[in-house]
Design the sequence.
């Protein structure tokens, strides 16, 4: 699939619960869906940061929205924006309907809405040091324990619930010249504080797929999240979205994390994340889209400050607890893409009051509508 060819799956409108795989789906049953998601997500995120040496994103597609620095991260965070018109998405829906032999009702009735994607890019020294993080720390936080990590380092994230999961063991597929495997497929429900008492908390149910590049020397993985807005109404497995008074909102995202050669041959890690969102409710979409570029970059210093605190906690635990045992014991990444270096475990809770200034700026900010969920 071309970088400029959009598909029907990785879309802000999301999927219906009835479109999810059966609870007892086998790895063989899941493989076509996993491949289809990759075929949309990989070219899309690659277009925001092409891998070819010296290549840059098309400025007509991804427009620069500036860059930011924060004392908790050594890396500068670049911000880009891509607007996908409703007319273009209408064609996507029409193509998809034609392929399924159904009618594209949304496009015919003019109900297809455009999407505004905001993307951040940062490159970090591969080391477990202040202001940056190691490859194993990225793997643990974003590939292995994505929801737990997000809840831990994001002050506005109040709850996380894994509602459903599928066994993807053994699935391997080819996309973009890369062999992909180590798939994980779950439905996650996340609740975010938006700005009480003015705005209600938002609940985001998403189908989340994680996949890693295979092969010697491959150090890359992607995380794709697709809304399932009717999950609370249609699935008995829902906990957060089905609660009385829950305000369900939407976000779709594609995240790519890979190790690259940095300056002077030193190993670096590129962290790329693109998302489009709609908090629903009373706040107009254009207000949310306007706020997004000024908010999305803040995840980077939040994560770097949090992982630094986790290392300090781990060091203190090893000093106090004999043999480094107990709750704070270190672990080694067992995945084929890990280096086996010691990394801190995810804490079960974070004291919001101890978070850096950047979190205080966002914790009661209506702009969090554009930031909640990723």
Sequence:
């Amino acid at each position: 699939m071309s970088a400029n060819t959009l598909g029907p799956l990785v879309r802000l409108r999301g999927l219906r619960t009835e479109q999810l795989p059966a609870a007892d789906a086998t790895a063989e049953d899941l493989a076509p869906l996993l491949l289809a998601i990759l075929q949309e997500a990989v070219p899309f995120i690659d277009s925001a940061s092409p891998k070819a040496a010296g290549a840059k994103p098309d400025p007509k597609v991804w427009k620069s929205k500036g860059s930011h620095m924060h004392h908790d991260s050594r890396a500068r965070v670049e911000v880009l924006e891509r607007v996908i018109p409703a007319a273009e998405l209408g064609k996507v829906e029409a193509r998809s309907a034609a392929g399924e032999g159904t009618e594209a009702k949304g496009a015919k009735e003019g109900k297809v809405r455009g999407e505004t994607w905001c993307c951040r890019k940062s490159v970090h020294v591969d080391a477990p040091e202040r202001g940056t993080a190691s490859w194993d720390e990225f793997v643990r936080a974003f590939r292995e324990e994505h929801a737990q990590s997000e809840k831990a380092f994001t002050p506005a994230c109040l709850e996380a619930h894994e509602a459903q999961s599928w066994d993807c063991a053994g699935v391997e597929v080819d996309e973009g010249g890369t062999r992909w495997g180590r798939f994980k497929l779950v439905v996650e429900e996340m609740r975010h504080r938006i700005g009480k008492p003015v705005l209600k908390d938002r609940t985001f149910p998403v189908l989340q797929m994680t996949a890693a590049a295979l092969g010697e020397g491959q150090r890359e993985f992607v995380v794709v999240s697709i809304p399932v807005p009717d999950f609370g109404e249609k699935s008995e497995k829902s906990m957060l979205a089905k609660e009385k008074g829950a305000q369900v909102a939407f976000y779709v995202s594609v995240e790519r994390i890979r190790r690259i050669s940095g300056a002077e041959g030193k190993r670096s890690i590129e962290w790329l994340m693109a998302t489009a969102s709609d908090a629903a409710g009373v706040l107009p979409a254009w207000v949310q889209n306007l706020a997004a570029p000024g908010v999305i970059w803040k995840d980077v210093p939040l994560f770097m400050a949090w992982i630094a605190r986790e290392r300090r906690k781990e060091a203190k635990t090893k000093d106090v607890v004999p043999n480094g045992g107990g709750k704070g014991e270190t672990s080694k990444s067992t995945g084929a893409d890990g280096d086996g270096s010691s990394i801190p475990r995810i804490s079960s809770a974070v004291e919001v009051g101890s978070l850096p200034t950047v979190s205080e700026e966002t914790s009661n900010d209506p702009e969090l509508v554009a930031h909640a969920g990723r």
In short: The radius of gyration is 20 Å. The chain is about 25% helix and 30% strand.
